[in-house]
Amino acid sequence: MARHIAFLRAINVGGHTVKMERLRELFASLGLAAVETFIASGNVVFESSARQAATLERTIEIGLRDALGFDVATFIRTPAELVAVAERQPFPASQFEGPAAFNIGFLREPIDAAAQRKLMTLRTEIDDFRVHGCEIYWLCRKKQSESTFSNAVFERALGCRATFRGAATVKKMAARYGVR
To answer: Are 116 and 123 within 8 A, CB to CB?
Structure first.
């Protein structure tokens, strides 16, 4: 069985609250093994004999919708992919001075050149973006609360689903669950 990491979008927002114990039970009920959650923000680590991310994403989304009554977009990465995402340095270190926030957005598939250009129109003096594969790297050079960018803005502008995590969380997960 192979290990996978699921990043869930909006599992505990919009009036929905799912305790991590319940989330682990739901994943286990889908036939997934060795289920763990990492902090209470929709990060689930599990093992499965299924190897295709798209198959796992569909299975989890259908299972969660049936059990919870609302849609939960799911983005799967392998431990090796997670390590690569965490180790990527898309911005120079000098840009992290001050109260910068650094986030990573997970997508199902890479966005095309037109979508990348559209994303770059969302840049501001404090928000900058880099795209690599199925990830969006978002640097907010001030407090994130000062930004006009959000997951919802991204999805409206580009028309695709995503979920964002703080880079520090991604790095901690890679250190704990990754393989080198």
So the answer is: no
pTM score > 0.90 for this model? yes
User: What is the DSSP annotation of 58-97?
Assistant: HHHHHHHHHHHSS---EEEE-HHHHHHHHH---S-GGGG-
pLDDT tens digits along 67-118: 999 999 999 999 999 999 999 999 988 887 777 899 999 999 999 999 999 9
Q: Compute the CA torsion angle 27, 55, 173, 107 (nearest 10 deg).
A: -130
Q: What is the pLDDT of residue 94?
A: 83
Pick the CATH number of 87-177 from 1.10.10, 2.60.40, 3.30.70, 3.40.1000: 3.30.70
Distance CA 32, CA 180 (A): 24
